[in-house]
UniProtKB/TrEMBL annotation:
It holds the Pfam family GrpB. SUPFAM superfamilies: Nucleotidyltransferase. It comes from the Bacteria. It comes from Billgrantia pellis. This is GrpB family protein.
Amino acid sequence: MTEAESLRLAVHERIELVDYDTTWPMHFDIERERLYERFPDSLIDVQHIGSTAVPGMPAKPIIDLMAGVASMAVADALFDTLLGFGYVTSVEFNANLTDRRWFMRHAHGRRTHHLHVVVHSGAVWHQRLAFRDALRTVPALAERYAALKRELASCHREDREAYTQAKGTFVRSVIEPG
């Protein structure tokens, strides 16, 4: 399979949830260290977010990383270097993002990593960590989220954007209670 074929398949990959895999934290650690080695002066912190960061949570088998930087100007300065470091992205998609930059790694036609570059200690940083930590510490909340994800994955199997948007109300209810 060529790189172009792998990317095309990864971009259009169906939403398929799998049971929690105990190796996901190790895969996160490996990628975090790889990023720290390449960007030691730019990355303030790198956190494991998303469902693969929540023990027991079914997930798309894609490791979500959130890299904290000093400013969006730093995030933009890393853009081309990340593209040369095994990540791909859409310039058009990122042009619509004001509070983060998004990148993807893939192999054999499957997404392997999503990298969200955000301002460290900014609103997005705190919101993503708050959501992850709530799912890690409140089992009933995690169970409700898992059930919602399963339902939405079956409804939006071919539409990643719709799947993500449909989870939005639940996510906001956790990070913006009351």
